[in-house]
Amino acid sequence: MASNTNITLWQKIDIFLAIIQSLIKTLGAIVLAPFRGPDTPKTFKRHISLTLGRNVIGRLSPQQMQFIRGSTEKNYLAWTTAHHVSPKSISLPSPPIQAFWVGDPTASTTLLYFHGGGWGMPGSSGHFSFASALIARAASAGKSLAVLFLAYDLAPSKRYPHQLTQCVELLRHVLTMLHKSPSQIMLGGDSAGGNLVFGVLAHLLHPHAAIAPLKLEALLRAAFAVSPIASFDTDYPSDRQDPAPRSTIKAWLGNYLGASPTDRWNDPAATDVAWWRGVDGVVRETLITVAAHEMMGPGTQAFAKKLDAASEHFTLFTAENDFHAEPTIGIDLGFEESEASRALKAWVVERL
Fold first, then answer.
1. Mean pLDDT, to the nearest integer, of 167-192?
2. How many C-beta atoms surround the C-beta of residue 204 within 10 A?
3. Which of 172-186, 223-237, 268-282 has the lowest mean pLDDT?
4. Do 109 and 352 meet the contact criterion of CB atoms below 8 Å apart?
C-alpha cells in the first residue's frame, strides 16, 4: 500500500546528520580495513558497503527509514519507468491489498512474492530486478513465469497477523478470481517475506484462528525462502556480515509483533517436526537459501533441520560467500550475481 509515513522537520534534519555521522564512521572502517577480523566480508567493497548500510540503518528510526525508502508502489512505478515497462497491478477491497505484476499475468506459472525488509521496509528496485532476471532465465529455458508482488502494509502501523492475512488473501484471490490452479502457483520471499512464506504454509496446514481457512484442491508448485527470518531468538552472533545491525533487527521484530506473542505461524524455528508433517501435502517442493555467516543463520538452520525431517522434498542451500538476502539486496548495492541467486534461479526454472 502507499506509504503514509510523515516525520517532523527535526527528523528530516536528523536524517542528514545521521548520514554525515555514518560516513565518518565508515571512513574509519576504510582506514582500518586492512586490519579487519575474520568475521568480516572477504572483499573490501562488501566490507565497506555493509558497514555503511549498518551505520545508516542503525542510526535512523523505522519511521525515518520508511520516509527515505518510500513505498512499494512508488518504488515499483519508478522501476517500471526506468525499465520502460507498463505497470500492472491488482487491488482487493477487504482487507485492502495492492499487488504489482512483473511479467505477463497470463504466464503459465505465477510466483507470489513477499518482499523482505523486517516487515517495516518497502519492496525495492532490487526485488523487481531480481524478478525480471528470474523471468528472463525462465524464458531462456522456454518457460513462462510472472511474479506478483504483494505490497503488504508495513509495521509498526500494522502488526502481526495483518501482513500474514494479506498474504493468505492474495493467494485466495489468485486461486478464486484469477482462476489459477495451485499447480500454477509458487510462493517466494526473502528475509521477513520468507517468514511470511512459511506462515502461509503453516496456515494451509493448521488454519490460524484470526485468518479464514484456505483449502487447496491440488499442491502448490513450489515454495522458496531466501534468508528467511525463522526465529525470534535475538541472541545473535556477530552482525559484521549483515546489511542491518542487531539492534535494528530486534526493533523490527518488536514492531512486527507489537503486543502479540510469538507463535507457530510467525516463529518457525520454535515449532516441532510434527507441526510440519503434511507440508508435502500442500506444496510439491520447498527450498531455503541461507548465507553461511549471516547472524540469523543459526535460527534458519535450526528450522531447516525440522523441515527436512518432516518433508521428503525439501532442499537447503548454504551460500558460503553471501550475506543476508543477497539475491535482492545485492542488486540494490550493485554487486555481482550471488551464489544463492544462481542456485535459486536454477532451482525455480527446473520446477516450472
1. 98
2. 22
3. 223-237
4. yes
43, exposed or middle or buried, with CB in 10 Å at 0-12, 13-18, 19+? exposed
Query: pLDDT tens digits for 301-333?
Result: 999 999 999 999 999 999 998 999 999 999 999
Burial of 177 (0-12, 13-18, 19+ CB in 10 A): exposed
DSSP symbol at 220: B
* Residue 97, amino acid: I
pTM summary value: 0.95
DSSP string computed for 124-175: -HHHHHHHHHHHHHHHHTT--EEEEEE-PPPTTTS-TTHHHHHHHHHHHHHH
How many CB atoms within 10 Å of residue 112?
A: 25
In the chain, what is the greatest distance between 2 CA atoms, to the nearest angstrom? Answer: 59
Residue in the block written with cell 530486534: 250
| 278-97-183 Cα angle (round to 5) | 35
